[in-house]
Write a structure and sequence with these properties.
Elements: H1 2-11, E1 16-21, H2 28-37, H3 48-52, E2 63-70, E3 83-84, H4 93-112, E4 116-119, H5 127-133, E5 138-139, E6 145-146, E7 154-161, H6 180-184, E8 190-192, E9 195-196, H7 202-205, H8 214-220, E10 223-225, H9 229-232, H10 258-263, H11 266-273, H12 283-296, H13 303-308, H14 315-329, H15 334-343, H16 347-361
Parallel strand pairs: 3-10
Antiparallel strand pairs: 1-2, 2-7, 4-7, 5-6, 8-9
Bound molecules: iron/sulfur cluster (2 copies).
One iron/sulfur cluster binds near residues 142, 196, 227 and 230.
């Protein structure tokens, strides 16, 4: 039965499938410890108990099928523009995975009369722990789930079901004495092996709203959505097996083009970002990150575009544009920033602009 389910899962596009029981996940203590240390991002859903009890998702649950779709081939050539993490390219995996899980759920119902619920990052459950227990991969020191053959660029989803399926065995840990991901992390967010301070992690920072502190802005470099650095450093991600046909990699616009991102209207944002996994936080966050990237790259060719955003209706865009302009033009931006400060009425934007003025005074 298990092999029949696995074969069906592969036939509809899943690259890997594993099985575990639906007992409580043994990580509530770890989650509480991370919360106590202030390492959670704040985007997590539910408390430690809700996040570790599969039967809360499906009363009578007996087994969980953990499924993965490989997306490592999504890497584009670095164009020197903004960086979008691989998970944010191509079609939104929540939709792709959701349809595939729906097909598998129907298969289980028809073949075995099973009741199941499908999960795709839309629930409190700790998906990585389910994947580990189901033998899909082991935890890397960067907290990714690493499959020995595919690496860690794998989208995860689950079916919790009331049918009994014999569990698979978890895999042995595979990092050994390697620490490449820890050394590669530009934010020192991997505080110790297998522990990330999500509040420092640039992947999380790119989706927080509002103004960002200056040190965070500088660390983001040209990241516009997400961060792949620790995964790219990992030897398990060297092989790569090409793009997954489940994802359409041809996006309407070149989303790495910072000039385009800074000037896109709502329609263009919808066409270029909303069908990807990078669109959920909205246009303002993506444009704020693009301003930060322009500032960090000291992109003189974008100075006029950034200058126009000093009068944008959104305070976070006005303030971040001031910061970016001070980075791009240095002292040459002083007059313009002082004038902008005089007419600015929003307190948080005024603070950001005054910092940009002080910053540009220090530059040549
Ligand atoms: S995603 Fe980026 S910032 Fe976060 S731990 Fe990995 S390298 Fe560090
Ligand atoms: S880079 Fe090395 S330590 Fe980090 S996850 Fe990969 S194998 Fe493990």
């Amino acid at each position: 039965m298990k092999e029949k389910i696995r074969q069906y899962a592969k036939s509809i596009g899943f690259d890997v499938a594993g099985f575990t029981d639906a007992g409580i996940l043994d990580v509530a203590g770890v989650l509480k410890d991370r919360e106590r240390k202030g390492y959670l991002s704040g985007l997590e859903k539910g408390d430690a108990e809700e996040r570790t009890d599969p039967s809360a998702m499906l009363p009578g649950a007996r087994s969980i099928i953990s499924l993965g779709i490989y997306y490592g081939g999504s890497k584009r050539k670095d164009s020197g523009g903004g960086k979008i993490a691989r998970a944010g390219m191509g079609r939104d995996y929540h939709a792709v995975m959701g349809n595939m899980l729906g097909e598998l759920k129907e298969f289980l119902q028809k073949e075995y009369g099973a009741r199941s619920v499908a999960l795709t990052d839309n629930n409190p459950m700790v998906e990585r722990e389910i994947a580990r227990r189901a033998g899909i991969g082991f935890y890397g020191k960067n907290c990714s789930i690493i499959n020995p053959y595919m690496g860690s660029f794998i989208f995860l989803g689950e079916l919790i079901t009331d049918m009994y399926i014999r569990p698979d065995m978890p895999l042995e840990a595979g990092c050994g004495d390697c620490d490449r991901c820890m050394r590669a992390c530009p934010a020192v967010a991997i505080v110790e092996p297998y522990e990330i301070n999500a509040k420092k992690c640039l992947s999380y920072i790119t989706v927080t709203k509002g103004f960002l502190p200056d040190d965070m802005k500088r660390r983001l470099q040209n990241r516009i959505y997400g961060c792949d650095t620790c995964q790219e450093a990992c030897p398990y991600n060297r092989a790569g097996s090409g793009p997954n046909p489940a994802f359409d990699m041809d996006m309407s616009y070149d989303t790495e083009d910072i000039g385009f991102i800074l000037t896109m209207n709502n329609r263009e944002f919808k066409d270029s970002f909303c069908m990807t996994s990078a669109g959920w936080r909205g246009k303002t966050v993506i444009q704020r990150n693009a301003l930060i990237a322009a500032g960090n790259m000291r992109a003189e060719g974008l100075a006029n575009t950034v200058e126009r955003l000093l009068s944008d209706p959104r305070p976070v865009i006005r303030g971040t544009a001031a910061w970016a302009l001070s980075r791009i033009l240095g002292k040459k931006s002083l007059g313009l920033l002082e004038e902008t400060y005089r007419v600015e009425r929003d307190e948080s934007a005024r603070l950001e602009i005054s910092r940009a003025i002080s910053g540009s005074k220090d530059k040549i």
